Amino acid sequence: MTNTWQDIKNADVILVMGGNAAEAHPCGFKWVTEAKQHNHAKLVVVDPRFTRTASVADFYAPIRPGTDIAFLNGVMRYLLEKDAIQRDYVLAFTNASLIVKEGYGFQDGLFSGFSPETKDYDRSSWDYEIGEDGFAKSDPTLTDPRCVINLLKQHVSRYTPETVSRICGTPQEKLLTVCELIASTAAADKALTSMYALGWTQHSVGSQNIRAMAVVQLLLGNIGVAGGGMNALRGHSNIQGLTDMGLLSNLMPGYLNLPKDSEPTLSDYMKTRGFKPLRPGQTSYWQNYRKFLVSFQKSIYGEAATADNDWAYDYLPKLDVPGYDILRAFDMMFAGKINGYICQGFNPLQSFPNKKKIRAALGKLKFLVVMDPLETETAHFWQDHGDKNPSDPSQIATEVFLLPTTCFAEEDGSLTNSSRWLQWHWKAADAPGQARSDIAIMSGLFRRMRDMYRKDGGAFPDPILNLTWNYTDPIAPGPDELAREINGRALVDVKDAGGAVLLRAGQLLDGFAQLRDDGTTASGCWIYSGCWTERGNTMARRDATDPREQGLAPNWAFAWPANRRILYNRASADASGKPWNPAKALIQWNGSSWTGIDVPDYAPTNKPEAGVGPFIMLAEGMARLFARDQMREGPFPEHYEPFESPIANPLHPKVSANPVARVFAGDAAEFGTADKFPYVATTYRLTEHFHFWTKHAKINAILQPEEFIEIGEALATEKGIGQGDWVRLSSNRGSVVAKAYVTKRLKPMTVDGKPVHTIGMPIHWGFTGHAHKGFGANVLTPFVGDANSETPEFKAFLVNVEKTAVPVS
Amino acid sequence: MADFQSLDVVRRSASTEIPPQVRTLPEVAKLIDVSRCIGCKACQAACMEWNDLRQDIGTFEGSYDNPADLSPATWTLMRFTEWEDPQGNLEWLIRKDGCMHCGDPGCLKACPSPGAIVQYANGIVDFISENCIGCGYCIKGCPFNIPRLSQADQKVYKCTLCSDRVAVGQEPACAKSCPTGAIVFGTKSDMTAWAGERIEDLKSRGFEQAGLYDPPGVGGTHVMYVLHHADTPSIYAGLPDHPHISRLVQAWKGVMKPIAMAGLAFTAVVGFVHWIAAGPNEVQPEDEAKGRDVLDNKR
Questions:
Q1: Does the structure's ipTM exceed the value 0.90?
Q2: Is the pTM of this model over 0.90?
Q3: Is-contact A764 A689, C-beta < 8 A?
Q4: What is the pLDDT of residues A426-449, one digit of tens each?
Q5: Residue B45 contacts A, CB cutoff 8 Å
């Protein structure tokens, strides 16, 4: 989230699209009801299904799964055509006025620079015209046709209401009502909040779905303001912490990138990470990248990381592919190229696409270690559960180790929520049986491996042998000690230019502003610096005092970065420093500094007239309507059909789906076509369950006991399916047999002139736990990933449905 | 329940006993704002947790209603209705069903077992299981079809409005757990006032018929609903439009009760008068002789 859960109460319009907040985030949804009750907010829901969120919405519009970009580009066109944009904001704070260089273009579904051989773009043309001063050229009059805003206008001009309706199936009048409601927040004192989740990410164009909405929000001036923002509702209690701490195959903590093979030395690596400002006087905060990296290296390698060895840069693994994401890992496992797997807090047999392939891949491993508090399906993948998990254990040689772990209530620690708050929690109960904390298990594995490397040597044991491990309890380091290590400390007396001591050796840092690139500071995750300072554990703070009752509560827990609650909050005030909406001000210029109820996301002494942009992490200081080279499939969002779609892309049938999405050859062969699988399917969570965990809890199993699919009345009538009848739902990858819920909440839509039916399938059932056994929706889903994040396309694929006999159980 | 004392009881079933004096408790109410409810079932889970109830794990029955119905182990549940207005706009009406804690409780009226059903001064209607004889009359007496008879112990169960929690100053478990403030608990007057604000908000959003469900036919209720369509409560999974205690129970426990008492008294009076006027029946010599003949013939 750029904003916070509590801040949603300040919104004037709430758009839930690409998510189902009431269902998947019922506790956070209370802030929507607050906004409706006390701010007279309107709730707008755009979703393929009439969801529980839609049941309390002021307006609901249906949409075909996988067409959100078409819808949002249509919204952009409407805003630009009606001039319903916050013009001063757009001009001052976005790159609308910057001039894009000749060579950039878009034609027939492809941006400039596409190579059909590599199925990738040369993105060098997706950039600004650079002047002789080294800065991006700008035309504040916005008359130059190569201005970003004019190129955007041109790009979205194709998305007329007729075209959007033809693609999305949304009736034009409903589309226009949504546009009007969204446009009402272009006023300087009105804000719209965008609440989204996996309904946007789980597409082959997932990242671009979110970018499209971000562009809408920027045009409306809704980023950085109270009640605005792009608010990703994270699906696990600590998934924000997972990404912050870099638990992705191409990241290190604090969103530093793992080096690539093409960057053998630190200087190679830093060459593309200079982050020189693209406009005069801009902050370009990533210029501090080296400080964060060196401090991270000092944190993990201590004395072994020196200036002479480039801070142990050689110890870092170098990627030979963009990332070893889970799709790639399972594809390699399936091909026999990965033969050992430590599966920690993850249940891929249920949660990754094409279950048949996942099961087969696990069966090719030599060993599988599962660390989990529950008996997951993955840990029992080899068991035969009939058609719900067909298996012949005699043919599987994988040795499986199930290591029971504590769950969150059985250990101290911190969880990072969607609002970027690090909240400390305390152990409430002892773990049952032989369960140990993940920390204890991992440290046990590490110590044994280190002993083996010490004894036997190896090709390159240095990164293991030199890892710092100076914990009070080396067997099971305490979460408090790890938190202090993540926060960071001075390694020697840190002095200013005049020689005065700023930090004593060993002193905990107050924040990342104190980090240095000379090896005198260490921090395990720069953005978390400030979470445990000399004043104590800021994550454990529980003071709910809330100035102006605006939902910031600055002394509750710790929010990264720097306890800032609303990101980009400099944009909440106009160019001269006056709040756009004085009733909900965040910070303002008081003549000598920036003050307010939030920590300024800005240098507090930057004078407004200096023209320093609010988007300090970007080299131009401006938010990007045009993404430059940061997205793999293009600088503007473009509608591409899902990989399995009932129609060819009406805009450019020859480039129907995302040309640079992640598809492996074997998986492409398993895509189905509309002639055999005529219906669109989507998958989702129900409020009664949390993924595949709560079916292990009896109460949740009582509340939603058995797998089912949702099918509209019209399709049910056509197929002779009655309420509660058994049906077989099949894709080109497999089929499930479940009861049908015939509902009015899914209605056929007219798409490209023909009727399209959508079928829904909740994801929660497997073969372990209290609830009835089920197949799992991932039997059906396709193995294709978003081009930027490799998130699988769970939300839009093709199926067929037939009535079937009652299964013999 | 045990946390209320006899002095808190204003009414007992099948009994004219009243305590020497009744404590004054503010009348309470639970307000369920259907327009804020997202059907998350946290209330159902909290009810099961607090009261230690575990229904058997059921099956999918063609809707999100799970368990499928109230039972001795399910005292509250969400009922989901897909409803289309006359213009064809879909609404998904989600209503938390359970005991309404009527001002004039039909169950209590129908109950023949002394003290098996009581009403406290705060309005809560409670079943006192040890006095329950399992006759099921309360089920007939309830206009909302709420009490359920357990086959295990032949006693009837329903929501207690967490009388044990309320007695010690806490809100019912369902209200405590509700994430969106759709269930709130307080004095009936506060809840009525809050409902007024909510109705105003709903009217401003185009729900002209928004209103409070506090039906006078049962003396008002201590569980009330804010409905977007208060003119037609029955669209919310059969919430009665005009609930009242069954005429049979009313007749039986109302008009019939004095008539029956009068009939009983009349019989006694007639008997007494007959005894005074005619004296007792005595055995005459002829009767003795007849009796002897019968016995002899038999031999």
A1: yes
A2: yes
A3: yes
A4: 999 999 999 999 999 999 999 999
A5: yes
